[in-house]
Amino acid sequence: MTKAPNAPSRRAAALEASRARALSRKPFQSMIHGATQSLPFLLVMVPFGMLFGVVATAAGFDLAQVMGFTVLVLAGASQFTAVQLLSDHAPIWLVILSSLAVNLRMAMYSASLVPWLGGASQPARAAVAYSLIDQTYALSIDYFQNTPKLSFAQRLGYFAGAAVVMCGAWMVFSFIGATVGRAIPESVPLDFAVPITFLAMIAPALRSLPHAAAATVAVIVSLLLAGLPAGVGPMIAAVLAMLTGAATETWIVRRHGGRA
Amino acid sequence: MTYSSAEIWFTIIVLGLGTFLLRYSFLGAIGNRQMPEWFLRMLRYTAVAVLPALAAPLVLWPAATHGQPDPARLAAAAATVVAGTATRNTLAAILAGAATLLIGLYLS
Hints:
Chain B: Keywords: Membrane, Transmembrane, Transmembrane helix. Chain B: InterPro entries: Brnchd-chn_aa_trnsp_AzlD (IPR008407). Chain B: It comes from Paracoccus aurantiacus. Chain B: The chain crosses the membrane at residues 6-30, 42-64, 90-107. The complex is a heterodimer of chains A (260) and B (108). Chain A is 75% helix and 0% strand. Chain A is mainly alpha-helical and 260 residues long. Chain A has 2 domains: 20-187, no CATH class; 206-260. The longest helix of chain A is centred in the middle third of the chain and has 29 residues, at 152-180. Chain B is flat and about 50 Å long. Chain B has helices spanning 5-30, 37-43, 46-60, 71-87, 90-107. Chain B has a domain at 51-107. The longest helix of chain B is centred in the N-terminal third of the chain and has 26 residues, at 5-30. Chain B contains 5 helices and no strands. In chain B, helix 4 (71-87) runs antiparallel to helix 5 (90-107). Chains A and B meet through helix 4, helix 5, helix 6, helix 7 and helix 8 of A and helix 1, helix 2, helix 3, helix 4 and helix 5 of B.
């Protein structure tokens, strides 16, 4: 830390300027901003969506069923879980329970958006709920937390822009995967798009000790419980990891003299 | 598959409804109410708790290699985490992981 002693203040000034820009945007401009900031995620949604179309079609689902999953469920990891378990001839109730367990995190996302969007209208909250996927959540919550003074209209606009780009891409490319996906050579390792995406989404947060502790517990417990039915182990691991993150944060706050 | 079309559509519709209700739960029912500090503190760690838990078994025991640990995929996962932590950039992390995977699979 010997070089550029003024770098932190310059960074703070840049952050302040970007907050001022965010606050001055009209709702429609916020939407464009959300859509633009979602574009890098297309590198994820495009192969991931195509992968679902390809995998589900290969498992024997027809085009309407593939699109039924994609439009009505709109949740990648649970769609893959359902297709996998149906291919394994699991009982229907187990398929539904396991796939819903994978989606339990959505309830946590829903809860963490309440401070930011809880005051929006009923239809707006229903629309947000429908398009609440890992990527729209991760991008929006980061934006809301960095610029706490946004209006409801600006927050909804930003979320809508992100949702149209990312959910739209998911649907379009599932369709493409289901129709033309068989042309992709089998040597292309599309399967690994899923874990790489998940890891890339959380890696930037790992420099903070509570986040790193939470992620470590998540990985260890999930691997230890891998023998349980699909989706159950990760769910237990996630709850323990959240407790770990919160406890570590509490410990750090106390050690630094009780300031939050 | 051994399921009828009706069984598959039943699964899709119930899964879709259930997933929507999970997403709508707090936003829809609780609305504007203030939530306790300890609860909000736990929620900060949702993504960093759930996503690694889902990814870890997929990394260590990939379905593509019939559950056998694969050096190329392990290296790709490590590269994703290292690049993402170093650059704080999701896209850089994805590119690093994809490049490592392709090189690793080419070499093996």
